[in-house]
Design goal:
heterodimer; A: about 270 residues; mainly alpha; MetI-like fold; globular; disordered C terminus; B: about 280 residues; two-stranded antiparallel sheet; 12 helices; 2 strands; about 75% helix
Chain lengths: ~270, ~280
């Protein structure tokens, strides 16, 4: 149909800048041009032979992994209680858990710097993990609470009536049923933490910086195409994660979180 | 599972985390309001007395507003296209989700390659002989808006898409069979039913745009500053934590002043739609 074409053009505008970064990363020149005049992988070699960049990459991966595990654990425990129990302040607690999302990141960065530096944790790994757990908890909480609410209590009751212990029920019934929610929460928290830059740059130190923050600092200093090479590696990571999630759960997993509406407790 | 009261222990980690978060907010407020041991609005008064700061605040709000408006206009048709495509929908979604999950720094860097003085567009214009010297496409508000729209558009598309998906295509077909024109179908059928998605997308885009630092700093430079850029500068060039805290509070409060009415509207529209359904 006629109307589809112009819209499809807009749709292609979304990946365009990313594709341009990836394509221009294979230049042999000392500055970035598009289209690249001649093919070379020298900037990838430079990235892979730089101890500093590799260290930043390792820190980013470790940080995202720790933050994802921490926030999924916290969100999992809290969502179990919130979904199963009725208590005063339940919906208030839920609102508060989702609150870090609605704070402008620039303000959040200053607030985090305040508390982290009062503990003398600025520029340390612990400080970064703490901040990233706060940032990722809402993203972990949403898929978890949604999957617990969708859980049919009959399954657990049946296991119980057959004499299974709470531990066995958790391991054999509850966790397997919640697996899609758990995977979504882990993937999402990991990606959000791995890409985060606005809040993180308030908290990094000279020896403790993540890869997006280093890219940001590098862009301001020089126009070296090594940034394009590193960016392309990050793009590769993202595409891999998206493809893996699509294969495991389907892309709908991303949409529920992206939709942005807080799941309200069923009254 | 019948774990009884023991289950409540599961709330402890979340409550500790929230306590830490609120302590951080408390520190922020305290350092903004307390000057030499005296509680007062001195820092806020000196912010609003400086014309250049007020300029930055006003620019932040209009850039965020314009970004949101453009994101709706661009995002709606894209969401509609995806929602009404049967075959290959996964691939179209991929085109939205993969950029969405790519780091903001990388995407902004892509725009620097496109918009810069030696960038793609200026290179083309000079090659084609259309411009003698580079057209300033970045280090100004234009560059910031282009970058922010691109970075935040996926949030809008996903929010609108998820409401469109729940909508029965039969509604549009019914309107079409009654010979309503496309624009009328959009205004009378689609838009009212998907308004909650549009509003919740607008809330997220607006909040993210007001709180952005990376995109405004890289594409706007230090001339067309936004509040995020200003906070970054106060913090890392002047090391003035109380001043940065004051600006952070002004930023948060002004963003909330715009978002609260939108949230109220979202709830009202949602309730209205539910009563209509019944």
């Amino acid at each position: 149909m006629r109307w589809r074409l112009p819209i499809a053009a807009i749709l292609l505008f979304l990946p365009a800048p990313i594709a341009i970064v990836a394509l221009s990363s294979v230049t042999s020149r000392g500055y970035l041009t598009f289209p690249p005049s001649s093919f070379s992988l020298r900037w990838y070699t430079e990235f892979l032979s730089s101890a500093e960049w590799l260290r930043a990459l390792a820190i980013s991966v470790l940080l995202a992994f720790s933050a994802a595990c921490g926030s999924v654990l916290i969100a999992f425990l809290a969502s179990q209680v919130i979904a199963r129990k009725r208590f005063a302040g339940r919906s208030l607690l839920e609102t508060l858990m989702l609150m870090p999302i609605i704070f402008p990141h620039a303000a959040l960065g200053v607030a985090m710097l305040g508390i982290v530096s009062s503990l003398h944790w600025n520029g340390t790994f612990v400080g970064l993990v703490l901040a990233h757990v706060v940032l990722t908890v809402p993203y972990a909480y949403r898929p978890l609470i949604a999957s617990i609410r969708a859980l049919d209590p009959v399954m657990e009751e049946a296991a119980m009536s057959l004499g299974a212990r709470p531990g066995t029920i958790l391991k054999r019934v509850t966790l397997p049923l919640l697996r899609p929610g758990l995977i979504t929460a882990l993937v999402f928290a990991f990606v959000i933490s791995f890409d985060e830059v606005t809040v993180t740059m308030f908290l990094v130190g000279p020896d403790m910086s993540t890869i997006p923050v280093r890219i940001f600092a590098q862009i301001q200093e020089s126009a070296s195409p090594v940034i394009a090479a590193i960016s392309t590696v990050l793009i590769g990571f993202t595409v891999l994660i998206v493809a893996l999630t699509q294969w495991l759960l389907g892309l709908e997993a991303f949409l529920d979180i992206g939709a942005g509406r807080s799941s309200r407790p069923a009254a | 599972m019948q774990l009884g009261r023991w289950l409540y222990l599961g709330l402890i980690p979340a409550i500790l985390l929230l306590a830490g978060f609120f302590y951080a907010l408390f520190t922020l407020v305290a350092s903004a309001f307390v000057t030499d041991g005296v509680v007062g609005f001195a820092r806020f008064a000196s912010f609003f007395l400086r014309a250049d700061y007020v300029d930055v605040l006003v620019r932040t709000l209009w850039i965020a507003g314009l970004t949101t408006a453009i994101a709706v206009v661009i995002g709606y048709p894209v969401a509609y296209l995806i929602a009404r495509t049967r075959t290959g929908r996964t691939w179209l979604l991929m085109l939205v989700i993969a950029p969405w999950l790519t780091s903001v720094v990388v995407r902004t860097y892509g725009w620097m390659v496109i918009l810069g003085n030696r960038g793609l567009i200026n290179g083309f214009l000079q090659w084609a002989g259309l411009a003698g010297r580079p057209v300033p496409l970045m280090y100004n508000s234009f560059g910031i808006i282009v970058g922010l729209v691109h970075v935040l558009c996926p949030f809008m598309i996903i929010a609108i898409f998820s409401t469109l998906q729940q909508l029965d295509p039969a509604l549009e077909e019914a309107a079409m069979s009654l010979r309503a024109r496309p624009w009328r179908i959009f205004r009378k059928v689609l838009l009212p039913l998907t308004l909650p998605g549009v509003i919740s997308g607008a809330i997220i885009v607006f909040l993210m745009a007001t709180g952005a630092i990376v995109t405004p700093l890289l594409l706007g430079g230090l001339r067309d500053r936004m509040l995020g850029t200003q906070i970054f500068q106060e913090m890392f060039e002047l090391f003035d934590f109380p001043k940065a805290a004051t600006m952070a509070i002004i930023l948060t409060v002004s963003a909330i002043c715009v978002v609260l009415p939108l949230q109220w509207l979202e709830r009202r529209v949602g309730r209205h739609l539910r009563t209509v359904e019944e």
